[in-house]
């Protein structure tokens, strides 16, 4: 089953609890400390453009990359509504291409956990390094093993809204560190009936050392890391880690 096809239609509806404003404010603080107050920034795994639009509103020249046409369709609708001059590209992050280098690359909301092989994660990071300006920043987050094993793994979540509902079943393989999401969507149609759709999503939990090895192999340097929710030190109960890496040579 394809990912983010029918779910794209109601993605923002069910993601209205994500603290995008808080995330963007934090990204802004990191960028401003490096005097990156304008210029080109790439949002890798941009989805429906929630973060892309907010950064464009701050005055950045934004490029959004995602491998789902359906998610990008929603992002384009937002672009036309806001009037922001954003370039959206439908590309696989494992082999994405830009027309030149950018001052920073952002990847939030565990987009990188969809990369299921360490060798491929290293490829992504290598491309990131390739397209960063000298000393440019890579700001990204990743879900932790703790989150998959203790929060998501083998649990079922459901939510009912007037426009749509979902049942989200998780299965986590501890040995492979693979989490499979079986998503059943019930989307309201114009005639007030509901149509059922199915999607399967698969993510990988990486160890901290594996993520460091991906940064090192790309010739980037890890500048800092923190708990993405508290912005404090990471702990054994941290669910998402925010990393800041820097370009240090191709």
Describe this structure in words.
By secondary structure, this protein is an alpha/beta fold. It folds into two domains: 7-143 and 205-247, 3-Layer(aba) Sandwich (Rossmann fold); 147-204, N-terminal domain of TfIIb, CATH 2.20.25. The protein is 30% helix and 34% strand. The protein has a seven-stranded mixed sheet with strand order 3-2-1-4-5-11-10, with helices on both faces. Strand 8 and strand 9 form a beta hairpin. The longest helix is centred in the first third of the chain and has 14 residues, at 20-33. The chain is globular, with a radius of gyration of 18 Å.
- Adjacency order of strands in the biggest sheet: 3-2-1-4-5-11-10
Which topology of the largest domain does CATH recognise?
Answer: Rossmann fold
Fraction of residues in helix: 25-40%
Per DSSP, what share of the residues sits in E-state strands of 2 or more residues? 25-35%
CATH class of the largest domain: Alpha Beta
What overall geometry do the principal axes of the alpha carbons give?
Answer: globular
Name given to the CATH architecture of the largest domain: 3-Layer(aba) Sandwich
Count of DSSP helices? 7
H/E series:
HHEHEHEEHEHEEEEHEE
Provide the low-confidence segments as ranges: 1-5
How many structural units, i.e. domains? 2
Q: Please state the structural category.
A: alpha/beta
**Rg over alpha carbons:** 18 Å
Short description:
This protein has helices spanning 7-14, 20-33, 50-57, 69-82, 118-131, 145-152, 208-217; strands spanning 40-44, 61-66, 87-90, 102-107, 132-143, 156-160, 164-173, 178-188, 194-204, 220-227, 240-247. It is α/β, with parallel strands linked by helices and 250 residues long.
């Amino acid at each position: 089953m394809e990912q983010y096809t029918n779910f794209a239609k109601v993605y923002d509806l069910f993601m209205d609890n994500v603290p995008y404003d808080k995330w963007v404010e934090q990204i802004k603080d990191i960028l401003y400390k490096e005097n990156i107050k304008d210029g080109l920034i790439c949002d890798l795994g941009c989805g429906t453009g929630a973060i892309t639009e907010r950064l464009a509103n701050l005055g950045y020249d934004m490029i959004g990359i995602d491998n789902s046409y359906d998610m990008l369709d929603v992002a384009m609708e937002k672009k036309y509504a806001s009037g922001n001059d954003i370039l959206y590209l439908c590309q696989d992050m494992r082999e994405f291409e830009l027309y030149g280098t950018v001052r920073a690359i952002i990847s939030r909301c565990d987009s990188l956990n969809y990369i299921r092989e360490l060798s491929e994660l290293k490829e992504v990071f290598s491309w990131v390094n390739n397209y960063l300006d000298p000393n440019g920043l890579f700001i990204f987050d990743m879900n932790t093993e703790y989150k998959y094993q203790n929060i998501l793994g083998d649990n079922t979540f459901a939510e009912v809204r007037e426009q749509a509902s979902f049942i989200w079943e998780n299965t986590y393989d501890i040995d492979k560190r693979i989490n499979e999401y079986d998503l059943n969507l019930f989307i309201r149609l114009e005639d007030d009936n509901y149509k059922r759709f199915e999607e399967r999503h698969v993510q990988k939990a990486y160890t901290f050392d594996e993520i460091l090895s991906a940064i090192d192999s790309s010739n980037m340097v890890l500048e800092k890391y923190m708990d993405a929710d508290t912005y404090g030190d990471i702990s054994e109960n941290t669910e998402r880690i925010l990393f800041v890496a820097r370009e240090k040579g191709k």
